[in-house]
Amino acid sequence: RNYYGGNWASFSFSGLLSWIKENQQEADLGDECEDWKKLILEDEEAIPLSRKDKTIQHVEDFCFGDQDSAEGVEEAGALPKLPVLGASGAGGVSLGPECPAAESREPEQGTEPAGATEGNEAGTTPGSESSPGEATLELGQTEAAPSETPAQEPKKITYSQIVREGRRFNIDLVSKLLFSRGLLIDLLIKSNVSRYAEFKNATRILAFRAGKVEQVPCSRADVFNSRQLTMVEKRMLMKFLTFCLDYEQHPEEYQGHESSTFAQFLQTRKLTPSLQHFILHSIAMVSETESKTLEGLQATKKFLQCLGRYGNTPFLFPLYGQGEIPQCFCRLCAVFGGIYCLRHPVRCLVVDKASGRCKAIVDHFGQRISANYFIVEDSYLSESTCTNVCYRQISRAVLITDQSILNTDPEQQVSILTVPPVGRGKPAVCVIELCSSTMTCMKGTYLVHLTCPSTQTAREDLEPIVQKLFNVNAEKGKKTENEELEKPRVLWAVYFNMRDSSGVEKNSYSGLPPNIYVCSGPDSALGNDCAVKQAETIFKEMFPTEEFCPPPPNPEDIIYDEDEIEPEESGLSNSAETKPEPSAEESSGGEAAAVTKEE
Q1: Composition bias, kind Polar residues: at what positions (predicted)?
Q2: CB contact burial 208-229 (16+ within 10 A = b; e otherwise)
Q3: Per-residue pLDDT at 572
Q4: Taking Cα atoms as reference points, which of 551, 483, 516 lies closest to residue 210?
Q5: Do both 388 and 412 map to the same domain?
Q6: Is 225 found in the same domain as 288?
Q7: At which of 306, 330, 359 does a domain end?
Q8: Residue range 489-532, pLDDT digits in tens
Q9: Closest Cα partner for 415 from 223, 179, 205?
Q10: CA-based, 20 to 30 A from 517: which of 435, 447, 454, 462?
Q11: Distance between CA 244 and CA 249 in Å, rounded?
Q12: The domain containing residue 260 runs over which residues?
């Protein structure tokens, strides 16, 4: 591939169009040269790898407008580079692992960073100064949002504008949010990878009920400020949420319901139908027909525990898209000598017949690369290796729209909505709507991601939901008697199915040596816990005595062995103190240096 991250990648609009074209082509690679087979010795055997990524299927894209108007239109130049994060005036709010509510602490003098503003733009108030050695996350406050005026009548966006502003888009292949107390956030902080990324709060939790989209009160303040709930409902909701936070301490409350679904358990709790809907679909976000009581209670507790760490919602979203996360890890890896090769196909794995272990790979240049361990993403394995593997599929849709699905707030919002199943046997659909201040779409547009486990093709699974929430006609929709606000208009859409290999055990693959470790692509869950657990499991199998993703040494703790470093390289230790984010090129000269940490 010529991009980072595989199926975790993000694309500009033109990049996504190229990706769509590539995955719509039925390329026949059967006649490709196989000279690499001559490089396999008599005491070796080869495991051929797949030559084409077959994890993406049923790709369909639609332009709901005058597509011809974009002929001859070229994409504008690249966006300005991201400023050094954490620097004064960079537009970020520096937060430590804990961010108590603003009213619960006294502001410290001189700790408000330049460019910090009030309100929901970053979903949080300016944080206090981090303690020494405390890792931080950057909650973004971009310059794009204040200049927008959502209250005014939005201008009509044309397809040619989308093409021209294509580099303003960062469109994720997989749609996820980060739980503020999830494994990935903890890993980003522990490993200090968080310094390479900036984040924005997902500020609205929405529900779809009785054909309408409405906001769900989640925190104590939201519940008591809500106009949707009666005073009795507010007390009911707070009592149940309080119970969920320490439900393990009160087993008598759910005894006898362990085998029941969570939806059935909620019916026994004297909750109104609207509260049951909010808890099941917008807070716990579990299946109405399959998830058992304990699974629902655990999911509700996780949601509530994440509230308040970085704002009044449990979720964060990385600015510039989910595809930034793998690039951030690659960047830290490069600083310490790792190399990520783009456009570098691998033809086969070379196995030693005597030991049964993999000893090398052969690339498309005919070059051998030897190693002790090999980590292979599932999509690289050929069909002969995966004959006994049964895959799940994920249905995905990405829409570019002209306004928010709940256009009642002048502030730009990141919203998450769970739409209940539209029929028997159908899954619930997770909808994530991103505004332009997330740096994932151009001004005046919204980027909407829809995700669910597949039952049919992505279009068959998701088009009914799109038609419920959006206007898919080319012209602006008209108000009806039952609609206070017109539906957002879809400007462009793509549907595709993605393979979910997250549940496949290694012994399901045929003939793999013990020192080959298979990792999966993205799963259908909202968070990233599956990927973090998988990475740690593989690492521990290879290096059981080593710490997984340890904190990198601070520049002042690095000691360079003078016997191994030439005099001209000594300046690297000084530059590390003034440049907290050295690029791979800047750090390449110091990769051979002996690095230790002071006791």
Answers
A1: 122-133
A2: bbeeebbbbbbbbebbeebeeb
A3: 37
A4: 483
A5: yes
A6: yes
A7: 306
A8: 999 999 999 999 998 888 888 889 999 999 999 999 999 999 99
A9: 205
A10: 454
A11: 10
A12: 219-306
